[in-house]
Design a protein that fits this description.
There is one protein chain. By secondary structure, this protein is α/β, with parallel strands linked by helices. The protein has a single domain (6-262), classed as Protocatechuate 4,5-dioxygenase, Chain B (3-Layer(aba) Sandwich). Helices cover 37% and strands 18% of the residues. It is built from twelve helices and ten strands. It has helices spanning 22-28, 30-33, 71-75, 84-96, 111-120, 138-149, 169-177, 188-202, 206-210, 212-215, 219-222, 230-239, and strands spanning 6-10, 39-48, 53-55, 102-104, 128-133, 157-163, 243-247, 250-251, 255-256, 259-262. It has a six-stranded mixed beta sheet with strand order 5-2-6-1-10-7, with helices on both faces. The chain has a two-stranded parallel ribbon with strand order 3-4. Strand 8 and strand 9 form a beta hairpin. Helix 1 packs across helix 5 and helix 6 runs parallel beside helix 12. It is globular and about 50 Å long.
Length: 263
């Protein structure tokens, strides 16, 4: 069985499902870059909980957890089967690592999961489940979760972590209101923060990445909250070392769309 990398994907705006941006095109070619997984474990910034929860749903609902977008987005569905057996394995691995995890019998796939998966695996024929994050427990916790999940990579599972390399929605909304196009120029703070993360990840300086809030330039501007950066740390933990950027672009000026593979 081919060992798969762990991935971090910036999922951007829900509009990525409709717009032919560089990130849309990158994700549309994702399946061709990798061996086909037996199942997918998605760790999305859009599911937060007090402790780790993993969905045990056999037929996950497509959650439209956004508002004010074109009707076409709300008509989209991602009808992939669930992965209850994988969920059980996640509970086992995290519990052994002293990171108690419970099953959730209702959770479907939020837009941080189903939109990039719809582009990357449009046939929706790979079982998928979703694992929550714990923003309040910080970066080291999410890295430890990834380390505990690393054996899944030897079991044909794709660990698919979805967030954003920069995520300041107030800035994005201001730029869109001012008429900045999706491919408009990026501010220095976003470019410099993204470049710092790429350099540290590719150099294997994961301690720096774990402490990005103190060490990275413009970290408070890039991430007013940690939740969209944390999936990167889970991917890094599962990958066991340095990663490499497999995509870099920006949308609406400051919304970073970088993606990384850790293998």
């Amino acid at each position: 069985m081919t060992k798969l990398p762990s991935l971090f994907i910036s999922h951007g705006s829900p509009l990525m499902a409709l717009m032919q941006t560089p990130a849309h095109k990158f994700l549309s070619g994702l399946a061709a870059m990798l061996a086909k997984p037996s199942a997918i474990l998605c760790v999305s910034a859009h599911w937060e909980s007090a402790g780790p929860l993993v969905s045990t749903v056999a037929i996950p609902e497509t959650i439209h957890d956004f508002g004010g977008f074109p009707d076409a987005l709300y008509e989209m569905r991602y009808p992939a089967p669930g992965a209850p057996a994988l969920a059980d394995r996640v509970v086992e691995l995290l519990t052994v690592a002293d990171l108690p995890c419970d099953g959730d019998t209702e959770r479907g796939l939020d837009h941080g999961a189903w939109i990039p998966l719809l582009l990357g695996y449009p046939n929706a024929d790979i079982p998928v489940t979703q694992l929550s994050i714990q923003q309040h427990l910080g970066p080291a916790h999410q890295f430890a979760v990834g380390q505990a999940l690393a054996p899944l990579r030897d079991e044909g599972v794709l660990i698919f972590c979805s967030g954003a390399i920069t995520h300041n929605l107030r800035d994005v909304f201001q730029r869109r209101s001012a008429g900045v196009p999706v491919d408009g120029p990026s501010p220095d703070w976003a470019v410099e923060f993204e470049a710092w993360v790429v350099e540290r990840v590719e150099g294997g300086h994961l301690h720096d990445v774990l402490n990005y809030g103190v060490l990275a330039p413009h970290s408070a501007m890039a991430h007013p909250r940690d939740e969209h950066f944390l999936p990167l740390l889970t991917a890094a933990g599962a990958g066991g070392g340095a990663g490499h950027a497999i995509h870099r672009s920006f949308e609406w000026g400051s919304l970073g769309m970088a993606a990384f593979a850790f293998d």
